[in-house]
Amino acid sequence: MKRDKEVPVPVLRRMPSYLSFVKTLQKQGEKYVSSTRIAEYMDIDSTQVTKDLSHTGITGKTRVGYEVDSFVKILEDFLGFSKVDCAFLVGAGSLGSALLQDKGLSAFGLSIEAAFDVDKAKVGTKVNDIEIFHIDQFRAMAAERNVVIGIITVPAEHAQNVADLMVAWGIKAIWNFTPARIKVPSHIVVQNTTIYMNLAILFNKLYNQE
Ligand SMILES: NC(=O)c1ccc[n+]([C@@H]2O[C@H](COP(=O)([O-])OP(=O)(O)OC[C@H]3O[C@@H](n4cnc5c(N)ncnc54)[C@H](O)[C@@H]3O)[C@@H](O)[C@H]2O)c1
């Protein structure tokens, strides 16, 4: 399978929606889907869909389009959703617990194996069968289980400290849910995620409508 290493982020943002749409068609028993149909669903141009999919090696047949089953398989592999990576989460508060409860994450290739906190009342308890350990146990457990993905859900003022510890303890990729902009060495992958940014966009669109 042809696979591009550097795929533009806007393309990667669209692909999960392509996948979700085609999986719905798959459940409905459809065998083929055209780029035009995906484009109509996405409200974008079909040439954009074809161009995006060219990164993945998915090929379509003239007039019928892409074969649905292989489309789903190739795109799931391409996006890294078909193999499950393990992660540790630090900060088992309200957001951290919500992530621990999310059974859908594994469908997207991520399994949170353990959580860590400094709150002694939380240590030893479980959320969705995932145990909460004291942060002091992170290093040894990450090394033992070869975990290289860390999720940060602590208050913003502690985010940098936790990120520094994660890097020192062998973490290679950090999914940062705090509003703090953490600084890490250039070889560490950081993905910042916040619902608040989307809320600001929603407000802006709502109140600036004609
Ligand atoms: N990305 C988003 O869309 C989004 C949404 C909600 C909250 N947040 C952010 O997520 C973070 C957590 O929010 P919350 O509402 O769950 O807070 P919370 O207070 O409920 O939970 C924070 C947890 O972190 C623990 N903690 C504090 N310092 C720690 C440390 N040094 N090491 C390990 N654990 C530590 C606390 O004991 C607590 O259990 C905040 O930064 C918040 O701004 C982001």
From TrEMBL:
Coiled coil feature spans: none
UniProt keyword terms in alphabetical order: Cytoplasm, DNA-binding, NAD, Repressor, Transcription, Transcription regulation
Stated family: Belongs to the transcriptional regulatory Rex family.
Keyword DNA-binding: yes
Gene3D superfamilies reported in the protein's UniProt record: NAD(P)-binding Rossmann-like Domain, Winged helix-like DNA-binding domain superfamily/Winged helix DNA-binding domain
Main subcellular location of this protein, as a coarse class: cytoplasm
Compartment(s) where it occurs, according to its Swiss-Prot or TrEMBL record: Cytoplasm
Protein's job: Modulates transcription in response to changes in cellular NADH/NAD(+) redox state.
Region forming the signal peptide: none
Binding of NAD(+), residues: G91, A92, G93, S94, L95, G96
Name of the protein in question: Redox-sensing transcriptional repressor Rex
Domain of life the protein comes from: Bacteria
Domain CoA-binding stretches: 80-181
Annotated region of DNA binding: 17-56
NCBIfam families to which the protein is assigned, alphabetical: PRK05472.2-3, PRK05472.2-4, PRK05472.2-5
HAMAP family from the UniProt entry: Rex (MF_01131)
Cross-referenced Pfam families: CoA_binding (PF02629), Put_DNA-bind_N (PF06971)
One of the protein's GO biological processes: response to redox state
GO MF, one example: DNA-binding transcription factor activity
Subunit structure: Homodimer.
GO cellular component, one term: cytoplasm
